# Entry
Amino acid sequence: MIKQPRCTRGARQVTTMLTLGTCFLMFVANLSTVQAAWRTLDEARVTRLTFSDRRALQLDFAGGGRGQIFFVTPDVVRVRINPRGTLEADASYAVEDRGAARANVAEFAGSEDAPELVGSSGVRVRVNRAPFRITILDRENRIVYESDAARPAMFDSESGEFETHIKRTSQTETYYGFGEKALPVSRHGQRMVNWNTDTYGYPAGLDPIYQTIPFYIALNKGTAYGLFFDNTFRTFFDTGKTDERRVSFGAAGGELNYYVFTGGNERSPKKIVGDYADLTGRAPLPPAWALGYQQSRWGYYPESRVRKLAADLRRNRIPCDVVYLDIDYMDGYRVFTWDKTRFPNPKNLMSDLRAQGLRTVIIIDPGIKVDPNYSVYTEGKAAGHFVKDATGKELNMNVWAGASAFPDFTDARAREWFGSYYKTHLDEGIAGFWNDMNEPATFLPDQLNEPRIFHHPGKTFPLDTPHAGDGRPDTHRRYHNVYGMQMARATFESLKRLRPDERPFVLTRAGYAGVQRYSAVWTGDNVASWEHLALTIPMLTNLSVSGVPLIGADIGGFSGEPTPELYTRWLQAAALTPMMRSHVESAKLDREPWIHGEPFTSINRKSIELRYQILPLLINLFEEHARTGAPVMRPLWYEYPQDSLTYLIEDQYLLGSDILVAPVVRPNQVKRSIYFPKGTAWLDWWTGKRYEGGTTAEVEAPLTRLPLFARAGATLPIQPIVQHTGEMKASDVRRVNVDERAVFPLTR
Ligand code: GLC
# Structure
């Protein structure tokens, strides 16, 4: 969808004879293509401009396009343009409360030729009518956002594709967020695509992967702005890769609908992330048990194996709250059933596990086996809840269970219907649900004589598949990227309905902006390699500032086998990430903390004990998130935007604002260099040694411990070690002042 201006009427870019020649040939070949070619919005300059209700600027373009510019809060500007005509009905899966996206009061300033919209805190939007450009200025007259005058917005009236361009404030501006990307911590100089894709064993750099969150934070010398492009089609961002002077973004359809987060007076990342959370919602408080250690694998069956796991956890004194059952618990991969030979009495098993302080989470995929003797299928079919293909026939594609049908999760009725099946599992004592394969992912036919590329188009529904779209019917082109999130929503909302007094726990692989309202997210099928361990920090910190607090990566790597050293370092690195779960694919060694014997078992136990010791702090941080939208896991630049040395750090992270974690992510390393951000001192968790802010130090990092530091002056709530969250007692929580006591002995 990245197009150069092609044969545009009046386009100034057509300079070479070659281009002119090509245009002429195309013109001869098909007259209609001239109309359908990419055009600039310039041609469609603003012919009419109105200011309505003391709120919004309405724009009419010469080519028939329509637009609106308004403030949704004094610090957040929303721009909507439909190059093809009337604006669409204003709907969004991302925005939590539609009121949050509506126009706030503003003043009209400037003149009709040079109009300006002024928000109530003094932020201004300047509109240039011909050619059409937007400039947003903060109260101090600094440019927040400026359309790139050298590169007009382009659109293709035939395909619906469009792109627009922003002038970069500086060529050293860095960019963060963008949801889940297997990319370095700052995403400058990248071209990124959003299209939820099942990417088993994705290599570093592969893009896109499972999630779509078209939101970023730009940072330049301590000053930030944010941009959220609320468009569910296939979208892209180019952060200075194609041209180092500009940021571009665009979509394969829909509207140019975006929010600019000016960052208010302080222009800080904190303010931007908070404003984004106000718009797209915050994660509700998770159950405390979901913050404990979680043990998973693909292959925990039959029941006796699960009982042995529970016994091994307790015998080895490995604190743990959750065990997972993957697809093998089902009868022939039929969701909402049990394989009764493997699990003859789930209710008994659940209650025995619960008695040992263990909750069970089970996987639920979207595909429903086509089987006339399977009531979930026959009921769904009878009620018309399944997705149909473009010809009106039920869409059947292969997943684990073979040919399967798929609920249309963009239909409230289908969500409610699917959600109702969770009741039996809740009654059996299942505590949480894991929604996988919801990109949606489908299998390629075996006989297909084509390369198995990661982004093979046959790995999901055909693009012309219709969806209900909650009252706005359209094809999979528009709804692909929200399918997974709407499945997680179906799960979350039904758990809320069925157990109103409990906090739901849902884990999803695919999602769209706002997914945090319904679910935790894990980073899919990663790899047992040092490179992937290192990747967890830039991936998770960026996902975190994209509004999703409850996140984790499969510890040890999902595919392949980690060495004992790699698994041990991975457990350490993940000990203070928001979600801590070991998981592995089938037919590979268990990812159990004792699997490699001593000395690894003892070291691994210590990593998990550390997490439980810090759990009261972690719980507080989730409360803080639920109140303010602040992330739990934080990149260093988020807390220290004035310290540019933090901008590219990707092997350290902060838990809240008071704990600095510097995991070892390279093999055979027993020392590592650590940067201590400016403006505060840090105390070594294990030795009490003090490090001044703004310095880099070589710190001992023996395999036996995670390099960890507490901020001088902080007060940390910590507790004695417990085997699971059911053993926690509020009276045992100590508030430790880091000034007095910097060493935190593990107590039992
Ligand atoms: C997918 C998931 C993985 C799961 C497997 C089997 O690959 O990403 O976590 O174990 O399916 O259900």
Q: What stands out?
A: The mean pLDDT is 93. The first strand starts at residue 38 and ends at 40. The radius of gyration is 26 Å.
